[in-house]
Task: structure prediction
Amino acid sequence: MLRSLQIRNLAIIDELSLDWSTGFTVLTGETGAGKSILIDALGLVIGLRADATLVRAGSDRAEVSAEFSVDDCSEARDWLAERELLETGSDECTIRRIVHAEGRTRAFVNGSPISAGELR
Result:
């Protein structure tokens, strides 16, 4: 389950932090409010192709971080444990993706570097 999402310098977003509770969440808003940017941010976190045009004008990089609970997902817990990316007894997975203005990207799971392919 997605617990939180932090975005910096992505498209028109300077800085944004969102926290979710359990249950159903709906994103609504007028055209141009940024709903699609939130979806793009989640796409970056799950390893979708990054595009340097997503970096906010005047910034050298965009950064997206998402915190997930993997308590109810044994497949994710096992995958993280196999790669030594999950602390013993923890149910938290933090994924961070950085997109540089020149197109280079970096990804991290619980602080360890990982490829975008592995995120997918």
Summary: The CA atoms of residues 94 and 110 lie 5 Å apart. Strands lie at 2-10, 13-19, 61-69, 92-100, 105-109, 112-114. The radius of gyration is 15 Å. The mean pLDDT is 91.
